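fyi for ur records
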Amino acid sequence: MRRRGGNVIALPVEKSGLKVEQAAEAFLERDFSPNTLRNFRSDLSRFCETFEGRPVDAIQAEEIREYLSGLKNRQGKRVSVATHNRHHGTLHNLFEWLIRQGGGDVNPVARLERKRLMNHLPQPLARGQVEALFSRIRDLRERALFSLLYRSGLRVDEALSLDMEDLNLAEGTFRVLGKGGEERTGYLSEETGPLLRRYQRSRND
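which gave:
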């Protein structure tokens, strides 16, 4: 059975003879948002092309796993993890809905895991990129701050919290409060020290 506008009507045929195209068509008649409907229709169109004419309750989990693994984009390359998981979600919704409507007994997609999204670490700038960026900074305070951040390994909030009293320019060190309020000592690079001295003199002028 399926619902349309709150009324329950029969699926096109008995569940044992329900073809994948009929199941998808019935599923898409539900009241989805335009964007959701567009995604479901696109995903199920590809699924129906692959399993055309097959009884939907005869499609096995391993077949769906191979189908999802073989999805390609328009350039012929493997689809992204996000797109793979979207197709997975669409099929999971289809089979869950069929079970609730009496059009199936098992959701084969429930046995399949979604792909995990990789956490990509930020890539550091190349030395040439850093130097190009530094050359565009004209303000003396900003140049000193940039050098301190880049060469001393400080976090932005730590660098901004520094006062001139926290700097020992003669010894080339500084004090900073890190996580948990713990004070630590850092060391100024050969490039940063002169910039900070120039900045200090400019404040005293």
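The chain has eight helices and five strands. thats all i got for now
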